[in-house]
Amino acid sequence: MTGDLSDDKAPAIIALESASKTYDEGRSxxxxxxxxxxxxxxxxxxxxxxGSGKTTLLRLINRLTDPSSGTVHVDGKDxxxxxxxxxxxxxxxxxxxxxxxxxxxxxxxxxxxxxxLGYDRRRLAxxxxxxxxxxxxxxxxxxxxxPHQLSGGERQRIGVARAIAANPHIVLMDExxxxxxxxxxxxxxxxxxxxxxxxxxxxxxxxxxxxxxxLLADRIAVLRExxxxxxxxxxxxxxxxxxxxxxxxxxxxxRYAERxxxxxxxx
Amino acid sequence: xxxxxxxxxxxxxxxxxxxLGGHVLVSMTALALGMAISxxxxxxxxxxxxxxxxxxxxxxxxQTIPGLALLALFYPLLLAISALTEKVFGxxxxxxxxxxxxxxxxxYSMLPVLRNTITGLxxxxxxxxxxxxxxxxxxxxxLVEVELPLALxxxxxxxxxxxxxxxxxxxxxTPIGQTSLGNYIFAGLQTQNWVFVLFGCVVAAxxxxxxxxxxxxxxxxxxxxxxxxxxxxxxxxxxIGAGALVPTLRAGVATYTVGAKTFSEQYxxxxxxxxxxxxxxxxxxRRDGLGSSVIFNALAANEIDVYVxxxxxxxxxxxxxxDVKPRAEVLREVATWLREQYGVTMLGxxxxxxxxxxxxxxxxxxxxxxxxxxxxxxxxxxMSIAGDYEFFSRPEWKALQAAYALDFASERQMQAEFMYQxxxxxxxxxxxxxxxxxRLAQYDxxxxxxxxxxxxxxxxxxxxxxxxxxxxxxxxxLRPLIGAINVQxxxxxxxxxxVGAEGASSESVAxxxxxxxVRRKKPASRARSLDDVNKNxxxxxxxxxxxxx
Lengths: 267, 549
Hints:
The complex is a heterodimer. Chain A is α/β, with parallel strands linked by helices. Chain A has helices spanning 54-61, 84-89, 106-116, 121-134, 139-142, 152-163, 182-199, 210-216, 234-240, 244-266; strands spanning 12-23, 28-39, 43-47, 69-74, 77-78, 91-94, 170-174, 202-206, 219-224, 227-232. Chain A has 2 domains: 1-90 and 171-267, Rossmann fold (3-Layer(aba) Sandwich); 102-167. In chain A, helix 7 (182-199) links the parallel strand 7 (170-174) and strand 8. Chain B has 23 helices and 10 strands. Chain B has helices at residues 2-45, 49-64, 67-88, 98-122, 126-134, 139-169, 182-190, 194-224, 227-250, 264-279, 292-300, 311-318, 327-342, 362-368, 373-376, 395-404, 416-424, 439-442, 472-478, 487-496, 506-521, 526-534, 537-546, and strands spanning 256-259, 284-287, 306-310, 345-353, 356-361, 384-387, 410-413, 430-434, 445-447, 459-464. In chain B, the strands form 3 sheets. In chain B, strands 7-6-8-5-9 form a 5-stranded mixed β-sheet. In chain B, strands 3-10-4 form a 3-stranded antiparallel β-sheet, sandwiched between helices. Chain B has a two-stranded parallel ribbon with strand order 1-2. The longest helix of chain B is centred in the first third of the chain and has 44 residues, at 2-45.
């Protein structure tokens, strides 16, 4: 593998060791022998075709599912020895297709995890206002709305606010911006990257959009048919990768750029 | 016409607090119990395929049992359980009225709640459940904070359906001794008081609509976060429940209970017994409309204190006797048997029989020259007979068939009230009538003689519960009624309570009956009483004719 930046300088905060996940007693492997570590404060993008095991990999980290073999360590501890409920409350999760609860207001949605952790009422209210500000929504007008009264972009901002509400240092994101229009998407992803940096988060994000992965992430991991086929910084992967699949995948932003400039030149 | 209508409406309204109160109590308790069982069961079952199917299967089967049968089945069941607890733990509970009604109705209410709760929870998108887990909720928190609120509209739909079902079906709890709006319907059907029947139906429907609307307000309130709606709905339900308790609490003074079966003569006699007890400072209330086998068991179990039964009924149904003996002998054997088997006291006969008798319109009987059952036995193959719901399954009918080799072209079951009209209109040829029925006179019918004595005697007898056997004041209060009512007097009383006469309430007929009894006991006033009767010459003539046997 090329460009392995699992730089041993920073300690790995998430570490998968030979993790496999199979269903039907081993007949249908979803993840095969994945070893991956994420250092503190890194922004890791996981890319790969549909069905390559991206979501399963993410779910292993907060024990929404457990590996069939291999181990998962978070904060240096084997997650099998950690109470899954407490683990999940300390890891932010932004769900594919938002995942806000339709019967709860914006404020209640945001406050869920802190509330489960026992924050008192006043602290909760203050935290909600703070978070609405962080995700750039005007608190007075959004606090008491219901999810169905919001636009897709607004909903996903709430989704992000909810994920970081209990001050987690790890955030997992499953195609968070996939369903948004391009302008919203750009604004939101930039805003999130800013939050990642200022709050000192460690982020693992699944995306289908190679451009997003290249521009946003510190490091990219490529999954194919349940296997980790490459990982590295965006520039190193684009330059040095020899595997034809990974190469083709990493070249997509380039190809678009070339076609775009050709188009502009011809006119 | 209008004054009679007004009078019936006024009487219906006078009984409303009691009947509506009983109805609300029994249906709300049943609904609450049903929900308390169904919702947890649904929570347990919605993720377990096998359990879910078993539960829904059982609930569906329960639903197919007719409401009346389900209610009726609970009475003997509870009676047996009560006997068991008395034997094992030394305490018994009342198997009559409230308890069996609540249990049967609760069972009846389960299917919609169970089904909708399961459907509602199963219909929640897996992504929502995953999100709840992902944000760190425990299984229980996910259920309480996310899944149940989201399934609430579907669950409430089930609760509302079952509320309407229960309120409707609760009208059927009258025959097992629970006062309900069904008392209007059962009594009204017996006395052809259609105002009562309609009144009972309309009030039950209105109650169902109101409760449905209140539940709907609560549902809207919960899902739109409008506290005012929730408060409105809850307050309405609490108000209805509290209002229902008022007549029950007020009626808490009665210490004696008089039972009545489901026909108008029984209502009159129960009212008479009650009035006699009240007049002697023994406060009594009534359990009207009890089923024929329910009422005897209730008396034996001391759940009611007194009622009027008929010697032939005890003879055939309780003693399982098929032989026919003379009137006096039957009375004697019945009295001995009741005392020895159940400790029940037979205070004595009232003085008339309410026996089964085959009856025909007089003109028709005369035209055909039929006077006895034997006379038309060979014609039976071309004739039709109508009886009440019990008659064709009773031993009397089998005895009659055997004695006279009767084989009718058709046997039709109908509500007793309609039999007479059907016979008068020629829709049926012969009916199984009751000898004390006022309608024999009203429709100008004759009862056919029974030369082979196939039909047992049916003396009206006052039966007293074991616990009152030594209660002198109680027995003395009722003793003046013994031997005081002959069959003409009873027919007249029965006729007064049905359409064509004043359609008077059973209470007012009972008061009239008592006045007659007192008057007839004084020889000097007997003539005056006959004068009164003679005022209605046509009816009186009919009465005399029908009473001729």
